[in-house]
Amino acid sequence: MNQTRSRDGATIAQVALIGLFVTALVTAQLTASKVLAFELPFALPITGAQLVLPGAALAYALTFLASDCYTELYGRRAGQIVVNVGFVLNAVVLALVWSTIAAPAAPNSVDPDAFETALGASTNVVLGSLLAYLVSQNWDVIVFHRIRESTGAEKLWLRNIASTASSQAIDTVIFVSVAFAIAPAVLGVGAVLPTKVILSLMVGQYLLKFAIALLDTPIVYAIVSVVRSREELVAEDAHTV
To answer: 3-state DSSP call for residue 105?
Structure first.
């Protein structure tokens, strides 16, 4: 019975972190179409007194918290498996949403055009988000693990902030560049935005993401500490059998 508890303890932690990762990822996909604007009490050189960013920014930032915790607890390979399976699941979500949009609507349905506007991401946004996700999330796991190899079990704060801050920068640059410059210019999907607007979007997104990377560090410490304490206690129980 104690051995069963040991396996269950590890499984609960893993499932919870994977669940958080997938939930945040799907939420980010479904909220990406809303553009947020935050007024600042001061003006910045590029953005001015307003930060403009997609509604997915907050939810997407949580995916890095979940993947960093998972990589810290279960290793680089396990973290990369979660990231790459998440990529496939993201594509499944898009396929399900698009198929629902394409299906005929009943007379008493919500307005099909409003439904498509709310949930149907444009091709340029989808291309940008998928490419940005694949590169930045794998980068996050690799950098996190490399820093851990150099520092050992110490300085979790360093690998959490460094990996998240750098991967969020990569994600922001790839997404905005592909979605609003490269894809529209090369493939003719979407509109090419002015350079000033593109830079403003990049800065606005990254400032929020970097702030979240700093603020989520105590949460990462708490999650890792609770999971390790639980698994140590369960392991001790298992040895008493």
So the answer is: coil
Alpha-carbon distance of 41 to 53, in angstroms, equals 17
What would the pLDDT profile of 169-192 be if each residue is shown by its tens digit?
999 999 989 988 999 898 887 788
User: How far is residue 219's CA from residue 92's CA, in Å, rounded to a whole number?
Assistant: 30
Determine contact, residues 22/62, Cβ cutoff 8 Å.
no
Beta bridge partners of 51: 38
State phi, psi for 36 to the nearest 5 degrees: -95, 150
Residue whose pair of structure tokens reads 């590169």 in the numeric block: 135
Angle, in degrees to the nearest 10, between helices 156-177 and 217-239: 130
- Residue 148's identity, in one-letter code, is R
Rounded to whole angstroms, the Cα distance separating 236 from 174 reads 47
DSSP β-ladder status, 35-44 and 48-54: antiparallel
The Cα angle at residue 89 between residues 86 and 94, in degrees rounded to 5: 130
Evaluate if pTM is beyond 0.85: no
Predicted confidence (pLDDT) per residue in 56-79, tens digit: 888 888 899 999 999 999 999 999
